[in-house]
Amino acid sequence: MPKNSKVTQREQSHEHVTESVADLLAHEEPLDYKSSSLNVGGAAGKKVPQIEVPENDGRPAWNSKLQYILAQVGFSVGLGNVWRFPYLCQKNGGGAYLVPYFILLLIIGIPLFFLELAVGQKIRRGSIGVWNYVCPRLGGIGMSSLMVCGFVGLYYNVIIGWSIFYFFQSFQYPLPWSDCPIRKNGTLAIVEPECDKSSATTYFWYRQTLNTTSTIAESGGLNIKMTLSLLVAWIIVCLAVIKGIASSGKVMYFSSLFPYVVLFCFLVRGLMLKGSVDGIAHMFTPKLEKMLEPQVWREAATQVFFALGLGFGGVIAFSSYNKIDNNCHFDAVLVSVINFLTSILATLVVFAVLGFKANIMNEKCVVENAEKILGYLNSNVLSHDLIPPHVNFSHLTTSDYAEMYGVIKTVKEDSFPQLGLEPCVLEDELNKAVQGTGLAFIAFTEAMTHFPASPFWSVMFFFMLINLGLGSMIGTMTGITTPVLDAYKVQKELFTVCCCIIAFLCGLLFVQRSGNYFVTMFDDYSAGLPLTVVVILENLSVAWIYGTKRFMQDLEDMLGFRPYIIYFYLWKYVSPLCLIVLISATVIEMAISPPGYNAWVEELAQERFQSYPPWALAMCFALIVVAMLPLPVVFIARHFNLMSDGSNKLSVSYHKSMMKDISNLEEQDEARFILGGKPGEAPSSGPARKPFLTSGGNKPMDSLSPNICYGTSYQNAKGHTPDSSIQIY
């Protein structure tokens, strides 16, 4: 080692070392690597080609920041914003529900979304690679994410298939679900009994679309129409993701923006409909007492959790194609706010249309019951004296009927139930909570049959659902393909096509006549609990194993500014605590709620709750176990060194950032001297803590959070703080 080396000077003078590794390397005089006597490749002075890392590490990148933001928005804004959020608003206190939702978005949603964006952008790998580097023993996090993405993708694309079927059925007038079909029996024509007992839209959904069986145990064979629709859905998804972000990024320009065009068109059209204001007023009327119920907060937390796509791996995968210095904090806040505002916009649209539908149904109720009253008057069951003099049956208003109904109920108190009259209160219609497929394929379609130019609006609505679903499916598929393509050198196009073919074949389970019940099963059990466990382990691995302070320093190096200190406490304490409470509440809810599904009973023409048979119950719990199985398996395998920790698969960009700061071999040797004890001795590769000498003497200062996961770290070598360590692979 040269005599002017600062390390050598301190060794000879026996002075206490007060600088950190970063200080020593920063002040060391640079030497020419090519002429250094430490060059093992040849004699001193002989020029040897220097290893160059290309500026482009070969990883695909987004064409623009807008394309990336649209991809994240398309993934996070999905069908749940349209048919789940409005239902939760209606169920949990209207406008009062927005308060717990917004609070939980701030303390859980944005911090954890920011965390996933940051680790993906820093490490530039998919979910499996990211968590292998942060903590190899918890590498099963990425594998569990991939499993959940697979389960969700299987049934989510079935919903897109249903939307495709309705989309093509909308190109006719009148719409096929406008009226009940007529059954001819010789010369006698009667309305289809199943439709007559329910409604035209309900009959079209359960009988003509799904042709559903009465129980999950009755397969009924494949539904050919739905099978073809599912095939079309998988072809569309495959074409969208076959080239990775090169193809999906372009698709996002349309699939992410078109739903907003449709929602604004529906909002404008809805506000011009009679009764739309009643629906919006009903939605935003706060029931403040609901805010005190724990169930409301649990459902708000769950919705925040799934609305942003946390734990699926899609967020990390999309972020991994960013530049290392991209401002992911701004992205996290922007996408979260857009997601929240989209939910509000969708809720306005849904309740404007449902308010119109409620008025239509209420007027229909008034007409039907007025005819009953006229019949009772003509048969002298009721006296004409009971009818207020200003009531005109040919132009009967809802207020006139309410007054007449009140008088008859008061006078005929004893015999009133036998009359079979209904109150026809608008509030009762508005309180009929509908969610999921019941909202999209029954309630909303029924409302659109009363629109002028109804086929146009139906086409627009279902095309919007297809695009919303496609954006989420692209993120889900990216969460599957990116980790695998990072880990294995396989042809992207071939692997994507194989995934889609396998998924289509597995998806045949959902296009049986009983397939709708399996969709419900997968929706209830394959994602909820496993994803919550995945996200809390993500949070703990960064905040408690890797170290929140070290992570904050990494973010400062990456972003050029230090994130707000509030994130430190949210990541370390608040978010883990909230997630533990959420997991506990989810487990309790699953324990006390009987596992079952709503089956459509053809004879009764209505839904009836049924418990799962034993084999289906076993399938439910198998979904949970299989999704979480990689977590303990990987932990045990790596604890006993039965599988590689993945540390030899660092991305080129990672090596690049390390090499920029360790510019010559002498500096590398000095780093080994300081960490190892003598020149040429490499630091221990085990999980030993890296000592830094304090200015007070020989007492070493430990790193802020000891890394029990083999010392694996994804931070850059530049800007080292006392709790950072140099890792050379």
UniProtKB/TrEMBL annotation:
One of its GO terms (molecular function) is symporter activity. Its main location: membrane. It comes from the Eukaryota. The keyword tRNA processing does not apply. GO terms for biological process: alanine transport; glycine transport; L-leucine transport; proline transport; sodium ion transmembrane transport. GO terms for cellular component: plasma membrane; synaptic vesicle. It is a multi-pass membrane protein. InterPro entries: Na/ntran_symport, Neutral_aa_SLC6, SNS_sf. The chain crosses the membrane at residues 68-86, 98-119, 146-168, 228-246, 253-272, 300-321, 333-354, 456-482, 494-513, 525-546, 567-592, 612-637. It is found in: Membrane. PROSITE patterns: NA_NEUROTRAN_SYMP_1, NA_NEUROTRAN_SYMP_2, NA_NEUROTRAN_SYMP_3. Residues 677-697 are annotated as: Disordered. Na(+) binds at residues 74, 77, 81, 339, 468, 472. Keywords: Glycoprotein, Membrane, Metal-binding, Sodium, Symport, Transmembrane, Transmembrane helix, Transport. Belongs to the sodium:neurotransmitter symporter (SNF) (TC 2.A.22) family. This is Transporter. It comes from Neolamprologus brichardi. The lineage of its organism: Eukaryota, Metazoa, Chordata, Craniata, Vertebrata.
